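Session log. Operator J.P. requested a structure for one protein chain; no other inputs attached. Running the standard single-chain path with token output.
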Amino acid sequence: MGITITKDLLVLASKTIRSNVASLAPLILPTSERLLPLPNHLIRSFHVANIKPHVSNVKRVVDHFFPHVGARPVRDKVQRIIGMSERQMEASRMTLYGFGNTSSSSVWYELAYGEAKGRIRRGDRVWHIAYESGFKCCSVFWKTIRTIDNKEKNPWSDVIDEFPMVDVDPHSRETFPYAFEPSK
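Structure written below.
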């Protein structure tokens, strides 16, 4: 039983996520970063050179990144596309471990993880990105208005000190019962 993830899904996911980032970038990036795609677009439009489309560096304006926990191959692809570190992906991986794949609602468990760890402060910029079947992708960019007391009611409150699970093997089905392996 389970789901099979083919390479076609990863290609589609990659295109959809890049498109989402390209749509979000002009809304959140500083002017200097917003101008970078222009020369790239002109070079590609006039066939001066065969280059890849420019992908904006949204990491410059994001303090916390919370991607949908989804299947491991898709999550790993998102990490590579956006260039996020293991620490930035920690909440996603630990949410999958703690709650399983709760679909798009997983981004709220990830936010709660960051709050319970005391990492989210007033003024921090938070990016939620979720994707669903079809392949749809949606982003929300927040600026926090207050620091949350990590002792407040939180789904992670009673176990947060046990995380991150450093000895967890992310490739083990026993450790991550809801993780799906890619098709061979």
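Operator note: Helices lie at 7-28, 31-34, 37-45, 72-82, 86-99, 106-116.
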